[in-house]
Specification:
With 172 residues, the protein is an all-alpha fold. The chain has one domain. Helix content is 78%, strand content 0%. The protein is globular and about 55 Å long. The termini are far apart. 36% of the residues are buried. Keywords: Membrane, Transmembrane, Transmembrane helix. This is Stage II sporulation protein M. It comes from Thermococcus argininiproducens. Pfam families: SpoIIM.
């Protein structure tokens, strides 16, 4: 059950963002500008996504509230950006810009969300009498395993986004 919560929340936010972009003009916020020479590097993308991951991980101490809010918000933003950009340059070109790094970044966010929900889930199980200890060593290991995996995926996504994705975007 715990592992399904994060992907379901992300998918809901993504769909809501796509729908919202079909009903609203977000081009002032997300848009494809072929004359934009802004070229962020690896650290820009890595730092941004690590900051998002910290907010997702922080659900471990906020009983999942910050994880829920930030997972929904970030999925909504991604969905809105996809919808807006697809309207401007087409779905195929949009996917060419998003997929190279997105195949690592999106799972990283979902896994970071799962980490943020891990501890509250275990505390709830304890409160309901489903387990004897509040937080076990295995629970902590599971949390840090999710954190580690999400960091590695964010690193890979930042490398790809700062190199391959930027080259693709310049050639579209």
């Amino acid at each position: 059950m715990n592992r399904a919560v994060s992907p379901l929340i992300f998918i809901f936010g993504l769909i809501f963002g796509l729908f919202s972009a079909s009903q609203n003009d977000y081009s002032a916020y997300f848009g494809f500008d072929p004359f934009d020479n802004f070229n962020p590097g690896f650290l820009f993308f890595f730092r941004h996504n690590i900051n998002v991951a910290f907010l997702l991980w922080s659900g471990a101490v906020t009983f999942g509230i910050t994880t829920l809010v930030n997972l929904l918000f970030n999925a909504f933003v991604i969905g809105s950006a996809i919808g807006t950009t697809a309207t401007q340059i087409g779905l195929t070109k949009t996917l060419l810009i998003i997929l190279p790094h997105g195949v690592f970044e999106i799972p990283a966010l979902i896994i970071a969300g799962a980490a943020g929900f891990k501890i509250p889930y275990e505390l709830l199980r304890f409160a309901l009498g489903k387990k004897k200890e509040m937080i076990t060593e295995e629970d902590a290991k599971g949390f840090f395993k999710f954190v580690g995996i999400s960091i590695v995926l964010i690193f890979i996504a930042a490398v790809i986004e700062s190199t391959i994705t930027m080259k693709i975007a310049k050639n579209i």
